[in-house]
Amino acid sequence: MYVVDSMPTATRHYTFDALELDCGRALSPVTIAYETYGQPNASKDNAVLLLHALSGSAHAGFTNDKGEPGWWHEFIGPGRALDTDKYFIICSNILGGCSGSTGPGSTDPKTGHPYGLSFPVITVADMIRAQKRLVEALGIDTLLAVIGGSIGGMQALQWAAEYPDATRAAVILACANRISAQGIAFNEVGRQAIMSDPCWRNGDYYGHTPPRVGLALARMIGHITYLSEESMHEKFGRALKKVDGYHYGFSEDFEVESYLHYKGNRFVERFDANSYLYITKAMDYFDLPDLSSIAAKMFIISFSSDWLFPPAQSKALVRSLRRKSKDVTYCEVQSSRGHDAFLLEVAPLTELISGFLDNVSRQ
Amino acid sequence: MYVVDSMPTATRHYTFDALELDCGRALSPVTIAYETYGQPNASKDNAVLLLHALSGSAHAGFTNDKGEPGWWHEFIGPGRALDTDKYFIICSNILGGCSGSTGPGSTDPKTGHPYGLSFPVITVADMIRAQKRLVEALGIDTLLAVIGGSIGGMQALQWAAEYPDATRAAVILACANRISAQGIAFNEVGRQAIMSDPCWRNGDYYGHTPPRVGLALARMIGHITYLSEESMHEKFGRALKKVDGYHYGFSEDFEVESYLHYKGNRFVERFDANSYLYITKAMDYFDLPDLSSIAAKMFIISFSSDWLFPPAQSKALVRSLRRKSKDVTYCEVQSSRGHDAFLLEVAPLTELISGFLDNVSRQ
Is the Cβ pair A249, B180 closer than 8 Å? Predict the structure, then answer.
């Protein structure tokens, strides 16, 4: 048996100059961290670009030499949804991120110091334009598919709209062509939590204590929106930490409180608060009403208990695509796991995605 | 015409000694701020106790001498839901609050300083035991009805369960007999926002700058849960503050962001951060599985778009009451206004509540 998870992978970096941005500024140099799994075929028409969500990284697949499995590793490997025997999988860290790609924590060549808030506000379109440069550098003219969930789905949509000749298919998970007012509201409260932390220092905290408390708060708020009420109820209900009842104080009483604290505190060890600001802003700005340029076969997948990107919004996107006579398939996966379902529902997603990619690659 | 809203009202105070609390401690003295509207009848059987939600106060009805209408003033007056020609309405500020009743900002007689975190953690049952003392002092043995929304509904439920002989009817709005894991999670993130603010000083900020930033954040989080996605979409959608597009920075872009900032900043002018901690904790602790003692006629009202206390939870409460053969009526009001609907849906609630009270008072 082929033990896929022990195949070591390493993050590589691609650097290029002068990326023009939606805000009117340009960024130079730009480094994009990426990993690949599987091999390109002779005709180089088997490449799948995987696009990560807010807290993801280039490390999507096989366990790396530090023993860390990738954020979607159950979906990547021989016989899996993204079958490495068939496809050449590329995953890159988004522009503005903090896991190897250029972002607010990178050194500004003009000053020799980290950008901080002088980093330009980037958009989802800026992210995919950087990815396009990487894909070209890897010798790929046309992608078999782009695939992503949440803000990764926004990137996949933007790919399909902006590079119709280079995108044969797109799989959009737990996403819509814009985020709701409620989604903006949650993102803004998370940003306010970070920017209210005295350690944030207007974004200029590199070399000092970072705004851990604010970032942990933002992550806690985020986590509530990633789970469904149903999954929180199943996981925690009103279970208490102490067996002998209430504690009559302001430390943790309930398991759900411990879970949030744990998630918040773990996140600050691996994520940069400024990147959180930039990426959530890009998410809020994303709004793609005009779908007319899309040529890709579109596969929209929603999850029944996702309330951050609810099925109703995915269906509205499907209707918009239908009205433009696009090739679109829709599936709502029944799941209690909320928005996070796109990371967790391995069995149904593997069936759906591998079937779809098979179909696309045969054409 | 009788201009009800110009009838001046004033908040009065009732003080008593030694309230035993669920946590095992006692509080003394206890002051409860209250207002009344209408008059008790000769047999003193027309009293209705109105119970406020997290941010309410004793000032529920007629506009006061500062020109401020009460938090439920459209429901209080001649011909209104709580008809002052028929009923004697009592509304008191909850124990632990910050609008005249004893709370963490009150002076501890033992030290001469504000309690801060040395104030005991109180429960919904503690709140209603203090109310019972006030009601008795007003010469009322039996209440015609108790009525409240959100944590006010929890108090009404507790009244019905703990004082069955003194509670003829209860109207429970936008509430359940416990809060969900998701509700606890939101409350905890709000508390963490307050307690993370350096101005909080472990609760000992009286006489110093209070933790405004943390309290505003907590309120912003709360406000998202009080509105529905639908009402946010109707009210704001993705409307921008600037007509000429995105701002490419981290100040407000969207109307929904301004709204949240406004709500957060206005709240800190009138509310004490420690009271926010104590009241949300009481809300989380509330859990009334045993409904067997209830003798009151129960009226449970939910709102279709309320996701903090969704109709499914109200229906579960109705089923529990039915299983115990209690007298219970249920109504789901169709409203896009989310949890806040219990403050806003004047027309349908006026019909429902006045009909119910009429029926109870005729028996």
Answer: no
